[in-house]
Specification:
The structure holds two protein chains of two kinds.
Chain A: H1 9-37, H2 44-63, H3 67-84, H4 92-113, H5 122-140, E1 157-158, E2 166-167, H6 180-197, H7 209-233, H8 236-254, H9 260-283, H10 299-312, H11 321-343, H12 348-368, H13 371-389, H14 396-412, H15 463-484, H16 495-518, E3 520-522, H17 524-540, E4 545-550, E5 555-557, H18 558-579, E6 593-602, E7 605-612, H19 619-629, H20 641-646, H21 668-678, E8 682-688, E9 692-700, E10 705-713, E11 716-721, E12 725-729, E13 736-738, E14 744-748, E15 751-756, H22 758-761, E16 775-781, E17 784-790, E18 792-800, E19 814-819, E20 825-829, H23 831-849
Parallel strand pairs in A: 4-6, 11-20, 15-17
Antiparallel strand pairs in A: 1-2, 3-5, 6-7, 7-9, 8-9, 10-11, 10-18, 12-16, 13-14, 14-15, 16-17, 19-20
Chain B: H1 4-7, H2 18-21, E1 24-30, E2 33-38, E3 42-47, E4 61-67, E5 70-76, H3 77-80, E6 93-99, E7 102-108, E8 110-116, E9 122-123, E10 137-143, E11 146-151, H4 153-158
Parallel strand pairs in B: 2-11, 5-7
Antiparallel strand pairs in B: 1-2, 1-8, 3-6, 4-5, 6-7, 9-10, 10-11
The chains are: A alpha+beta, B mainly beta.
C-alpha cells in the first residue's frame, strides 16, 4: 500500500488541472447526451473538446505513470471515436458511461491526493472499464472494419453457467427491442433475484450473525454478477439500482444490528429492481421505470459505504462454483484440441474448436466480470481467426502462445484466491504476421506532457498565500487607522499631513478592494456542477427539466463558492422533486419545467436565485403538515402566506408523502438555512401558487471585513455589524413596558421588541442607564428582533474581524473582535447569538423567580 | 491572521536555545513575594495598557489587549493565585508568554530581573502546606539569601480547577 507517499507539487498541480478539465467536459457530456436523446446529431466542436479533454488527462497521467487513469482515458477516447465518426447507434447511455468514467477518475484523483495507491479503487475501475468495453464492443460490431466480434457469433453457442447452451443471436442494440442475449441475462437475473428473496435473512431480522454473514456474502456476489451484465448491456439505470443494493449489503455486512426496517428497505429495493426488469422486458429500456425508494436511503452515506466497501473488500472476486467447474470442463477439451494443433498446425477442425472454446470462455468470463480472463480469451480468439484465414502464420510460436493462454486461464480460475491479475506480463509473443499487441492492459506509453505555454493567462497560487496577503492588507487598514487617527495628533492642524493621510487612505482602500477580489472566483464553477445534477435527478424522477444559468460570471469568494454548493444542491433537488410536476401529456417534447439559476451583485452582497417554474409552494399542505407535527398550534392561526412559506425552514419539516430518496425527508431546507448562516448569509423564499417558486440567497461579499457601527455601552465600546441593524431609535420611558418576569419591551409600529441590556445579560454588573438617556439599536436576525440599549453611537467603520484567541472559549453573542483606530480592542457582537443569550437569560430569570 | 510568531520577533527558537535558556528565570513580584518563571516561554514584557473586558470569562481572565495588531488575552496572576485584586500602578507589567501555541499576557505587580538559578540551587516543593495553590509551584530557587517561588507557567494558563 502506498500510503503516505510523498506527494510532489507537480502531481498536485496535475490533479488540479485535470479536475478543471473534468469540470469543463462534464456539463458538455450531459448536454451531448440530451442532444442524442432528442435524436440530434452530436456537435463536432463539443465532441472534439471532450475528446481533447480526455486526451490531455491521458497524456499527463502517463507522464506520472498513473496507469489506471491512462487506461480509463484511453477507453473513453476509443468510445468517443464513435461519436466523431457520427455513428448511428450511439446514444445517451454512452455519454452516461463517460460521465461515470469521470466520476471514477475523480475518485482516483482524491486517492492520489491523499497519498494512497489505486488498489482500493480496483473494483470501481474494473467495473467502469467493463462498461466502457461493453459500449465499445457493441458499437464495434456494427462497423465495417470488424476485427473480431467479441461476442459469440451466430454459429457458436454461449454456455451460461448451469444451463443448457443457448443459441445466441447477435446482441442487438438495446433500444428499442432487446436482443436474445439480453433476454438470457434477464431471465438469469430474475432467477438470481428469486434466490435472494428466498434467503432466510429476509424473513427475520433476529438471527445470529454467522450464517447471515454467509448469505450476505453470497448475495453480494450475485448482485455483482447482475451489475456486470447490466453494465455490459448498457442498462445504466438498472446498474444504479443494483449498486444501491450492493451498498446496503455492504453496510449490513458490517453492522451487527439489522432491524426490521432495514430488511423492509432491502425488500423494497429488490422489488424496485424487479420493476425495472419488467420495464426492460416491455419497452426494451430501463429508462422508463421510475423507482420509488424508501426512507433510510441516504445517498451520501451510501456512496461512502460503497467506497469503503471497495476499499475493504478483497478485490479478487469469489467465483461461482458452477462457473468454475464449467470452465474447467471447457479448458480440458480446449487443451485436447490445442495438443492436436501442436502436432499438426494444419488441423482446421481442431483450430475451429479451439477458437470456439476460447470464445465461450471469453463470453462467460465477461459475464463474471473477469476482465483479465476475458481479455485473454479475446486475444486468443483473434489469433485463431487470423490463423483460419492464413494457415501459414500458425507456427510453433503461435500455438505455444495459445497453449500458454489456456494455461493462464486455468490459473485464473484457481479457486485459492479466486483469481489473479497479471499486470504487465507479456504472455503472448508477437507473431510477426499479426499486429496483436502484448497481452497486457493498454499502455499509452510515456508521453511528454502537453505544456500549454503561450495561451495561459492564469497562474496558480496557493490559497494560503492568498490568505496571508489578505490578512496583511487587513493589518494595513488597521495600521493606517492607527496612524491617521492617532491620539497624539488629535486636534492639531496639520495641513500637509492631512493631505498625505488622505492619499494614503485612498491607496489602502484601493489595495483592499483588489485584495478582496483576488479570492473571488466566478460562480460558474458551482453552477456548472448543477448541470449534471439536474440531468441525473430529472432522469431519476422521470421529468424533463430544462436548466438555465444566468450571470455565471458573477464572482464570489472562493470559500463562499464551496459553501453554497450543498445548499444549491438541496434547492435544485427540491425544485425537481417537489416543485416541478410531470406533464400529463407524455408524448410532449416540451420540458416539464424550467429551473433558472441566477447570480448577481447587489449592494454589498451577492444574490443567488434558484427559480423554478413549478406549481409553487402549496400553502395548504404546508400549513396542514405544520399543524400535524405540532410546529404550529391552532392558537397561532391565522398565519400570513409569507409566514406559512417560512415554515418550510423549520427543522424536521416535510410535506412529502411518497418519500423520494433525496427530498422529502425533512432535512433539506433547515440545512440550507444553517449553511447560509455559517457564511453570514440568508435565504428567503418567494412563491406563487401555480407560478413557481424562487429562493433567494444573500451572501456578503466578504467574510473578513464587515461594516460595523461602533457604539458605547457604559465604559466599553462594541461593534455591531451594519447588516444586522434595522434602525436606531430614541425611546422614552413610557414607551417601555415591563412584563412580569422583568423583561422590558418596547412597542415599535405594532411590534413588541424585547430590550437587551448588554451588561445585564453578561452579568457584568448593573447598568442603570435610563432608557431615556440612551438609544435603542433595533437589530434583527431572520425572524427575531431585539433592541440593544446603548449610550452613544461612536461612528461607522469598516472592521477587520479578528477571531478570539484559542485560549478563550467561545462566548455566545460575541463573534470576534477588531482593533479600532486608537488601538483599542472592540468586541464585535453576534446578533443571533446575542438574541439567543438574552432568551436564555430570560429563562434563567424565570427559574430563579418562581 | 498574521502568524503570531512574526510579531514577536525575538528570534528565540525554542529547540535551538533550550540549553542557553535553561536555568534562566524571569523574576517578578506579586505582593511581597518574589516569583520566577522559566524564560523559555517568555516573549516580552510590556507596560500596562487598556484591557478590553470579555464577558463570561473566569474572574482572573481580565480581557484582551492589542499587541501590535494582534489581539491577545490577559490573565491577572494575582487573582489566579487566589489573592486579592490590587489596583494597577505604573509599575504593573504584562509578561507576554507563549505556551502551547497560545499567546497570553500575565499581569504582575512588577518585574525584576532575569536570574540564573542552576539546578542544584532548586529545591522541590515542601509538602508541608497542602494548600491548593501549591500546585502552581514548580520548585523553590535559592540565590544567596533570596528565595524565589518558581511558577509553573503551564498550570498558570491551563489548569482548570
Amino acid at each position: 500500500m502506498e500510503k503516505n507517499r510523498k506527494i510532489d507539487e507537480d502531481l498536485l498541480s496535475f490533479i488540479a488541472e485535470s479536475r478543471e478539465i473534468v469540470e469543463e467536459i462534464e456539463p458538455r457530456l450531459v448536454k451531448l447526451g440530451e442532444e442524442l436523446d432528442n435524436n440530434r446529431e452530436p456537435d463536432d466542436e463539443t465532441v472534439n473538446l471532450i475528446f481533447r479533454g480526455f486526451h490531455t488527462i491521458k497524456g499527463t497521467a502517463a507522464f506520472y505513470q498513473l496507469d489506471s487513469i491512462v487506461s480509463l482515458a484511453h477507453k473513453a477516447e476509443t468510445l468517443l471515436e464513435f461519436f466523431r465518426k457520427n455513428h448511428e447507434t450511439i446514444n445517451a447511455s454512452c455519454t452516461d458511461v463517460l460521465c461515470h468514467t469521470l466520476d471514477v477518475m475523480e475518485h482516483l484523483f482524491a486517492l492520489i491526493e491523499a497519498g494512497e495507491g489505486e488498489e482500493s479503487a480496483q473494483d470501481k475501475i474494473r467495473s467502469i472499464m467493463f462498461r466502457l468495453n461493453g459500449r465499445i464492443d457493441a458499437l464495434k460490431r456494427k462497423t465495417e472494419d470488424d476485427e473480431f466480434t467479441g461476442m459469440p457469433g451466430p454459429e457458436t453457442s454461449l454456455t451460461f453457467p448451469g444451463k443448457e447452451p443457448y443459441p445466441a443471436a447477435r446482441l442487438e442494440e438495446v433500444q428499442p427491442s432487446i436482443g436474445k442475449y439480453a433476454q438470457i441475462c434477464l431471465s438469469e437475473s430474475r432467477a438470481i433475484m428469486k434466490k435472494i428473496m428466498g434467503m432466510s435473512f429476509m424473513e427475520t431480522s433476529e438471527d445470529s450473525g454467522a450464517y447471515r454473514e454467509d448469505e450476505l456474502e453470497g448475495c453480494h456476489e450475485l448482485f455483482r454478477i447482475m451489475v456486470d451484465s447490466a453494465g455490459f448491456l448498457g442498462f445504466e439505470n438498472l446498474v444504479l439500482h443494483l449498486e444501491k443494493a450492493l451498498d446496503w449489503i455492504h453496510m449490513k455486512d458490517k453492522d451487527m444490528d439489522v432491524k426490521t426496517e432495514d430488511v423492509e428497505y432491502f425488500k423494497g429495493l429488490c422489488s424496485s429492481i424487479l420493476h425495472v426488469f419488467n420495464g426492460i422486458e416491455s419497452s426494451g429500456t430501463d429508462r422508463d421505470s421510475v423507482v420509488i425508494e424508501l426512507p433510510g436511503d441516504e445517498t451520501p452515506a451510501a456512496d461512502d459505504a460503497h467506497d469503503a466497501f471497495c476499499q475493504e473488500q478483497d478485490h479478487k472476486t469469489e467465483l461461482s462454483g458452477i462457473f468454475i467447474s464449467e470452465s474447467f470442463g471447457l479448458i480440458e477439451e480446449l487443451d485436447e484440441k490445442l495438443a492436436l494443433l501442436r502436432e499438426d498446425p494444419g488441423d482446421r477442425d481442431a483450430l475451429k474448436s479451439a477458437k470456439s472454446f476460447f470464445h465461450t470462455l471469453k463470453g462467460s468470463a465477461g459475464l463474471m466480470g473477469l476482465a483479465d480472463m476475458e481479455a485473454l480469451g479475446e486475444k486468443a480468439v483473434a489469433v485463431c481467426e487470423k490463423a483460419m484465414e492464413d494457415p501459414d502464420c500458425l507456427d510453433d510460436q503461435a500455438v505455444g502462445g495459445l497453449v500458454e493462454t489456456s494455461f493462464m486461464i486455468r490459473r485464473l480460475l484457481a479457486p485459492k484466491d479466486g483469481g489473479e491479475d497479471f499486470g504487465d506480463r507479456p504472455i503472448y509473443r508477437r507473431n510477426p504476421e499479426n499486429e496483436r499487441r502484448r497481452l497486457s492492459p493498454d499502455h499509452a506509453g510515456p508521453v511528454a506532457p502537453e505544456r500549454r505555454i503561450a495561451d495561459r493567462r492564469d497562474i496558480r497560487v496557493s490559497i494560503s498565500k492568498l490568505d496571508e496577503l489578505i490578512n496583511l492588507v487587513g493589518e494595513l487598514v488597521i495600521a493606517e487607522n492607527m496612524v491617521v487617527k492617532n491620539p497624539d495628533i488629535q486636534g492639531l492642524e496639520l495641513e500637509n499631513f492631512e493631505k498625505a493621510a488622505v492619499h494614503l487612505r485612498k491607496i489602502v482602500r484601493d489595495l483592499q478592494d483588489v485584495a478582496l477580489t483576488v479570492r473571488m472566483v466566478p460562480v460558474s464553477g458551482v453552477f456548472r456542477k448543477m448541470i449534471r445534477l439536474v440531468h441525473d435527478f430529472s432522469a431519476k424522477s422521470d421529468k424533463k427539466v430544462k436548466l438555465r444559468l444566468v450571470g455565471e460570471d458573477t464572482e464570489i469568494d472562493k470559500t463562499v463558492a464551496e459553501l453554497i454548493s450543498d445548499p444549491l444542491v438541496h434547492l435544485v433537488r427540491n425544485a425537481i422533486g417537489h416543485g416541478i410536476r410531470k406533464k400529463p401529456d407524455k408524448t410532449s417534447k416540451e420540458p416539464d419545467g424550467v429551473i433558472i439559476l441566477e447570480a448577481r451583485h447587489e449592494g454589498g452582497e451577492v444574490l443567488i436565485l434558484v427559480k423554478d417554474s413549478g406549481d409553487g409552494l402549496d400553502t395548504e399542505k404546508i400549513l396542514g403538515k405544520a399543524l400535524e407535527t405540532g410546529i404550529v398550534n391552532q392558537e397561532d392561526l391565522p398565519l400570513s402566506e409569507k409566514e406559512i412559506h417560512e415554515l418550510i425552514f423549520h427543522p424536521g419539516f416535510s410535506t412529502s408523502d411518497d418519500v423520494t430518496d433525496f427530498s422529502g425527508r425533512g432535512v433539506g431546507m433547515d440545512v440550507v438555512r444553517r449553511n447560509l448562516d455559517r457564511i453570514k448569509g440568508r435565504v428567503d423564499v418567494y412563491s406563487r401558487r401555480g407560478k413557481g417558486c424562487s429562493f433567494v440567497l444573500r451572501i456578503p461579499l466578504t467574510l473578513a471585513i464587515i461594516d460595523g457601527m461602533l457604539v458605547r455601552v457604559g465604559e466599553s465600546s462594541y461593534t455591531i455589524p451594519l447588516l444586522s441593524i434595522r434602525e436606531t431609535i430614541q425611546v422614552s420611558r413610557h414607551q417601555v413596558t415591563t412584563t412580569m418576569d422583568g423583561q422590558e419591551m418596547v412597542s415599535l409600529r405594532d411590534q413588541m421588541i424585547p430590550v437587551i441590556r448588554l451588561h445585564d445579560i453578561y452579568g457584568m454588573g448593573t447598568d442603570d442607564t435610563d432608557v431615556d438617556k440612551g438609544l435603542l439599536v433595533v437589530v434583527e436576525h431572520q425572524d427575531d428582533v431585539a433592541g440593544l440599549l446603548i449610550h452613544d453611537i461612536l461612528g461607522e467603520q469598516q472592521a477587520v474581524i479578528k477571531g478570539m484567541s484559542r485560549y478563550m472559549d467561545h462566548v455566545m453573542g460575541i463573534s470576534g473582535c477588531t482593533i479600532l483606530g486608537d488601538g483599542e480592542v472592540s468586541l464585535i457582537l453576534d446578533v443571533p447569538g446575542l438574541i439567543q443569550k438574552a432568551q436564555l437569560r430570560g429563562m434563567e430569570r424565570d427559574m430563579t423567580v418562581h | 491572521m498574521l502568524d503570531e510568531q512574526d510579531i514577536f520577533s525575538n528570534g528565540y527558537d525554542e529547540e535551538d536555545d533550550e540549553d542557553t535558556q535553561k536555568d534562566k528565570y524571569l523574576t517578578f513580584f506579586i505582593g511581597n513575594e518574589e516569583y520566577g518563571m522559566g524564560i523559555r516561554h517568555v516573549i516580552e514584557v510590556i507596560g500596562m495598557q487598556k484591557i478590553t473586558p470579555v464577558p463570561e470569562m473566569p474572574g482572573y481572565l481580565k480581557g484582551v489587549i492589542n499587541l501590535r495588531g494582534q489581539v491577545i488575552p490577559v490573565t491577572d496572576v494575582r487573582m489566579r493565585f487566589g489573592l486579592e485584586e490590587k489596583i494597577y500602578t505604573e509599575r504593573t507589567c504584562i509578561i507576554v508568554v507563549n505556551v502551547r501555541e497560545s499567546f497570553v499576557g500575565l499581569v504582575v505587580d512588577s518585574v525584576s530581573d532575569v536570574l540564573d538559578i542552576p539546578e542544584d540551587r532548586m529545591e522541590p516543593v515542601p509538602r508541608v502546606n497542602q494548600r491548593e495553590t501549591n500546585r502552581y509551584i514548580e520548585g523553590m530557587g535559592r540565590v544567596g539569601v533570596d528565595v524565589y517561588i518558581i511558577v509553573d507557567v503551564q498550570w498558570l494558563l491551563f489548569d482548570e480547577s
